[in-house]
Structure formats: structure tokens, C-alpha cells
Amino acid sequence: MYQFNFHSPKNIDDAINIYNSCEDPKFLAGGMTLLASMKQRLIAPSDLIDLRAINNLSEIILNKNTIKIGALCSHYKIASNNIIASKINKMIKLASGIGDPAVRNMGTIGGSLANSDPAADWPAAILALKCNIITNNRSISSNEIFTNMFETCLDESEIITELDIEIPEFFNYVKFPNPASRYAIVGVAIAKYENKVSVAISGASHTPFIAKELSEALTLNFSNNIPLKTIPSDGLNQDIHATSEYRANLIDVLTKDALKAY
After folding, report:
1. What CA–CA distances, in Å, run from 245 to 1, 234, 242, 262?
2. What per-residue confidence (pLDDT) applies to 152?
3. Which CATH number covers residue 224?
4. pLDDT digits (tens, 9 = 90+) for 56-106
5. Which residues contact 137 (CB under 8 A, 6 or more apart)?
6. Which tens digits make up the pLDDT trace of 7-23?
7. In angstroms, rounded to a whole number, what is the distance separating the alpha carbons of residues 14 and 16?
8. Which helix (H) or strand (E) holds 194?
């Protein structure tokens, strides 16, 4: 690693002020991607601004039909939370399937979203759910935040503080994981709200996306018995792990698998 300065602010305002005063700073949440990149000398920030000492960013609160999840909640904390277990039970399975115990204890949901890894699990789930992503200066709808591979609409000095998730009638997330990294070769998240169903896909493309035709078909007939039209393989990822055609077929298979929980 290169030399860097380390800061541990106690509130959001201090964190922003430090960021604006530094040459090439980075915010640190769980650090699962950031620190690994620094160790490999892929990036060399001048300053790390650790957000973990800021109060109220790691709470999970039920407010009527909405669950507020602090951005610094670890995957493990979400996986072991009673509110999540009782209101969006399959989110427990999602959080429990991320990486290994070390990753689940240190990695955070806010950090995962801000990193916008196309094969991560949280982006697809948050995209399918009715969710507002709250930052230090605005509210962002989940369908607006992901703009490209490892890119979001967040400004440079913007910090995610919490996620406000409307509790769905049904939610499930199923993935076909890479056996080594546990990242999704393809992941499918399904959320049902009254008369609307959203199906979001991770791992298959450079950004998570809503599968419009699948969403429309399931909105009309929410069942795993209906024939699902395979998403065209054009534009899907093709690499050493899977061809684009294989990923297209996985989307259908995993969608039907996710619906078995209904």
C-alpha cells in the first residue's frame, strides 16, 4: 500500500468537510473492495475517511410499512435482524449468502450500493424493491442510482446514510454463484407490490437491470407455471464463467426457482 492519511469523523458534516479539504480522498465503509484495491495498488487515495464512528448509520427501524436500514449495517447485522426476518424474510437468505463470514461482518449494504459491482447481490434486490436511497443531501429512487459498471449517480462527496424500503407482499432473491467468490454469475430478485411485480437481474450485464418483459408477465400472472420468454442474450456478459446464452437461460431458470417460495 501507498502512504495515506486516516480520518475518523464523528458526524456527516465533518466527513464532508474533510473530504473537500483533501487532495484525493475516499470514504471508507466496510472496505471490502476499497482496501483490496489499495493492496493491489490499483488506487492510491491520499486520505481515507472512515465513516464507522458516525452515529445512527447502522440502525434498522420499522416505521409502519417501511423498514429503514442504515447504510453502515453489515451484511451479518441484516442477516441476524428480527425486523428483517419478520417482514422481508428472504432478505436474510440474501445477506447470509454474501462472501464469507469475514466479508459479512465487515461489508456494508451502503458500501455495496455505492461500489455498484454488477455481480453483487444488494443492487438487484434494491432495484426490485420500492426503495429510496437517502444521502446527506437528497433522496434517490433505486431505479436511478446505478448508471454503469462501478458507477452511480452519487456526487463525489455524497454519502449514503440510509435505505427506506417499502415492505413488499413477496420478495425473493436467488443466484447462481461463482463457487470461489460467491458473486452472482446471475442473480434474480423478485418483489411484488399489490398489482405490480418487478424482476431485477444482477451478474448478467454491466449494470443490474429490470427485466421488463418478465416483470410484465408476472404482473399479469404471478405463478411459476407460466412460460417465461428468455431474455435475448445480446448485451449480456460473456466471460470465462458463462456465455451470454447460458446467462440468458439462467435468468429463466432462477426466476422460476425464486417463485417457488410464493
Report:
1. 40, 8, 8, 27
2. 96
3. 3.30.465.10
4. 999 999 999 999 999 999 999 999 999 999 999 999 999 999 999 999 999
5. 158
6. 999 999 999 999 999 99
7. 5
8. none
Nearest to 71 by CA among 85, 58, 88, 54: 58
Integer Cα distance of 226 and 211 in angstroms? 16
Angle between helices 212-220 and 244-259 (to 10 degrees): 30
Both 190 and 218 in one domain: the answer is yes
Total domain count for the chain?
2
Of 218, 98, 210, the C-alpha closest to 169 is 218
Three-state DSSP state, 98: coil
Does residue 67 share a domain with residue 29? no
In this prediction, residue 133 carries a pLDDT of 98
Whether the Cβ atoms of residue 190 and residue 170 lie closer than 8 Å to each other: yes
| The length of the chain, given as a count of residues | 262
Domain containing 35: what range?
5-50
Cell of 167: 415492505
Residues 41 and 66 in one domain: no
Q: Which residues are paired to 49 by β-bridges?
A: 7, 27
Judge whether residue 230 has pLDDT over 80. Answer: no
On whether both 143 and 227 belong to a single domain, the answer is yes
178-206 burial, b at 16+ Cβ within 10 Å, e below that, comes to eeeeebbbbbbbbbbbeeebbbbbbbbbe
Quick check: 150 pLDDT over 80?
yes
- What's the pLDDT at 241? 93
Q: How far apart are CA 164 and CA 153, in angstroms?
A: 18
By C-alpha distance, which of 71, 162, 150, 74 is closest to 118? 150
Of all residues in the chain, what percent carry a pLDDT higher than 70?
99
Q: State the Cα–Cα distance between residues 116 and 229, nearest whole angstrom.
A: 27
